[in-house]
Structure prediction request, 245 residues.
Amino acid sequence: MLHRTIVFLALIFLVAACGTSINQSIDIADGSLVDGDLTNVNGAIRVGTGAQVNGQVSNVNGSIQIGDESQVGKINNVNGSIRIGSGARVDGIESVNGGLGLGSRAHIRGDAGTVNGRVRGDDQIQIDGDLRTVNGGIELGQGSEIGGVVRTTNGNINLDGVRAAGLETVAGNVTLSNGSQIEGELRVRRPGRMDSKVPSIIIGADCRVEGPLVFQRPVKLYVHENAQIGEVEGAEAKLFSGDAP
Prediction:
């Protein structure tokens, strides 16, 4: 709640500072150049195809859409979904109460995260930093690369042919498939309060976890006979063959 309030007040300040109108949408035409921030309250922000915004894109109570092959600075949003088009480039994403959709070949040149919302990415997504949610799942398609840690608290993680530096959850199920690779640690943390759920961790065929697998709570760990994993702490792996345990 504190985080949400801080973000909201910060965006209101930006609106006042930039003189941006309130209660209406902002539409940036295809191929346009905006040399500054885009800030709005109570309306959508839509950036067209092949456009460039040399500043932040910030919104409260409205969606944000970035068109294919466009380039913008950091995105901040409260109470609204975010959609990044195919081949678009964004400096970073911070969201509260809204899902995040990433088109194929989208490139986030920093961290990307949402507090209450699901992250769904197409193929060949590139995120240079961490990818995180609190209450929401993460799903990424083939050829995607995450330079940092993929992290959830209450949300499932499904990586299909994805490479990431690390993976961490508290209460979510994890499925690695189609040769996904975790270059560091896979960790399931102890919940902060009593939780009887037993997450399922599935390491599919040809997948690899190079670092240790650390489980600070009970889990069901399934490892394909063709997968490669590091040292396991806190669970016993059950081997399986075929597409699923």
